[in-house]
Amino acid sequence: MSRATCTVAVVYPDLLGTYGDGGNGLVLARRAAWRGIPVELVEASSSGPLPRADVYCLGGGEDGPQVRAAEALRADGTLARAVGEGAAVLAVCAGYQIVGRSFPDAQGAAREGVGILDVTTVKGPGPRAVGEVLADPLAPGPGPDPLPVLTGFENHAGVTTVGPGAVPLARVVAGVGNGNGDRSEGAWAGRVVGTYLHGPVLARNPGLADLLLGWAVGPGVRLAPLDDRAELALRADRLGAGRAGAGRRLARGRRAG
Amino acid sequence: MTITSGATRLGARARVAVGATRAVNAVSRQLRLGSGTVIGGRAGLALDPGLLGRLAAGRTVAMVSGTNGKTTTTRLLAAALAAGDAGPVVTNSTGSNMPAGHVAALAAGARQGPAVLEVDEGYLPGLVRSVGPGAVVLLNLSRDQLDRTSEVRRVAGRWRAALGDAPATTVVANADDPLVAWGAGTAHRVVWVAAGLGWRLDAVGCPACEGTITFDDVDGGWSCSCGFARPAVDVSLVAGADGEVDSRWADGRLLPVVLGIPGRFNRANAVMAAAAAEALGVPAGRALLAMSTVDEVAGRFTTPVIHGVSTRLMLAKNPAGWVELLGLVRGDGTPVVVGINARVADGRDPSWLWDVPFEELRGRPVVATGERCLDLSVRLRYAEVAHETVRDPFDAVRCAAAAPARHGGAAVEFIGNYTAFHDLLGRR
Q: What percent of chain B has pLDDT over 90?
């Protein structure tokens, strides 16, 4: 009896290691291991070639390292090739911007992205978007079943527009998200999911984690339910905090931007 | 321009501003609105924006900045300078490390004598320019309060610009931290201390060229292909007798570092403080001896009895600090209570919990507490650390004390982030 073996790669933690997003890789690896699925978690440094993996996690990062990560990924070529062959990608914040068509550097100049997700990011006119986010997933979503409401913490200056080749992931209930005026948050196409949510996002949204894991292990492997009481308690707490925050913002009147 | 000598004379406006600072703070304390430092300082600065420079004029001023160890190093350096002959030392020992806190400390203290100021990393450049300190201690730069502070690389760049314009300042800098080495690199006089760097994740991107820094784990050196590398070290820490630590100085001196507070990282802090004291006229040996009397720093490392449970209190604000303290409590089975809040002073985004190697706590009794105990609980679940989750910190200590493991010393170790620590300290 053969079982799926799953490789999870955390992409360039030396460049995209800010904001605890490395936790997304750990969440995927543990949720596979707890189900008896043989799994390997690889931290792929920017100093070497990107390994082949079933799911790639890209996290947030500072402006300079973000530019270097995009250049390295484009020169390496593995990520785009792997996506073409069915690999899954979770790209967060700076990582979300990098996998798109273009994103702004520290001076606001457009830099070329990896181009595996049809989104374009420019520097926003207003202050950084910082705070708790609640977002209702839009239908149709990336998976067969609708995802539960997404919770996370955003911290970015970019404004992201979703092109015709991708679909917004969710609609913001509290927070800013893509920030382009349509109240969308994140984007997806095929098995590439981009979002501004830290937390890390997969720790706060185990449903999204299992969607990515399902893609990584293939349709032949059933993902048994896990004891997610800790995650559910955290979600209840954060959903309450996010709704309270949204209520306060409404009471103060709509903010610009 | 006013030239002053000896006891500095303040102008009429500054005298009014000092009076306002003291009066507002006295009222604030009486009404129990707070410890009464920041609010009075704000009042003083509103009346006289140049007040800080005027209060500092004529004094020997030392500043301590960096992400980790500021409060402890400030306390140690104040003890060291108190051993000199320059009069009573003024310091912002409450950790109010922005200009309002500095004004309050200087306005409340003696008009003369050295000042040792803990300075927020972001405020350091402006304060170096307005005060012109005799010495600046730069400890480390790492991620902290992700939701509201500048990215660390930008902070290093701003330090670099300000210190290049401060010819009278001696900088004591951690040579093991590339970001600090970059920030101090333009200073006119630097004493480089090999103070160690337990947390490297923020240091791998070269601040000079954006290349990658490579570290040598054997000798602690680091370098980038662009040529930016660890400076030649003036002072280092070496193993001494009986598990103690000695400091080796460029002129061949070997000075013991014996402290009343725990941890290798605090020995490094003490050596940096000793180098600053020496730059300000107190020999390092005398400075280190004076520091040995410090046995707690604003409640950190005290062991109060909480509901009958002897509890050692420790504060860790960010991953670098957690790495140090998890190392400190490693090894025995004493129960550990971990307290996490996410108020403004803590940073509202606790994602950094996933950068902390909580895996080290596996196999010992652990209780997650604080306002964000649920975030911590999920982190501990994925670290495969069995734990209880008890939101109230007092109840958490009681719960931890009920665990079977018991050794000499404290019955429970409590490590909290900023407001979680202060909540427990304030309520005990």
A: 60
Spatial CB neighbours of B324, under 8 Å, sequence gap ≥ 6: B68, B198, B263, B264, B265, B316
Instruction: Give all domains of chain A, ordered by start, each with its CATH number.
Output: 6-251 (3.40.50.880)
What is the value of pTM for the model shown? Answer: 0.85
Query: Does one domain contain both B208 and B349?
Result: no
Question: Hey, are the CB atoms on B212 and A63 less than 8 Å from each other?
Answer: no
Most distant CA pair in chain A, distance: 60
Q: How far is CA B317 from CA A230, B91, B338, B340, in A?
A: 24, 21, 12, 10
CA distance linking residue A31 with residue A216, whole number of Å: 12
B262-302 tens-digit pLDDT: 999 999 999 999 999 999 999 999 999 999 999 999 899 99
Q: Does B353 touch chain A (CB under 8 A)?
A: yes
What's the rounded mean pLDDT across residues B340-350? 93
C-alpha distances in Å from residue A131, one per residue of A6, A40, A238, B52 = 34, 33, 12, 34
User: What number of C-beta contacts closer than 8 Å exist between A and B?
Assistant: 87
Cβ distance A20 to B153 less than 8 Å, yes or no, reads no
Option in B212, B382, B389 nearest A27 (CB): B382
Q: Which residue of A has its CA nearest to B359?
A: A26
User: ipTM value of the model?
Assistant: 0.94
Q: How far is B213 from chain A (nearest CA, A)?
A: 10
Averaged pLDDT, B121-125: 94
Looking at B265, B291, B317, the residue that finishes a domain is B291
Task: Indicate yes or no: CB of A64 within 8 angstroms of CB of B143.
Answer: no
- For the question of residue A198 being annotated catalytic, the response is yes
List of chain B residues whose C-beta atoms are within 8 Å of the C-beta of residue A127: none
At A6-30, the pLDDT tens digits run: 999 999 998 898 789 999 999 999 9
Whether residues B226 and B149 share a domain: the answer is yes
User: Rounded to the nearest 5 degrees, what angle is found at the Cα of A109, between the Cα atoms of A107 and A110?
Assistant: 145
Q: Is the peptide bond before A200 cis (omega within 30 degrees of 0)?
A: yes
Residue B297 within a domain: no
Q: Which residues of A touch B381 (CB under 8 A)?
A: 230-231
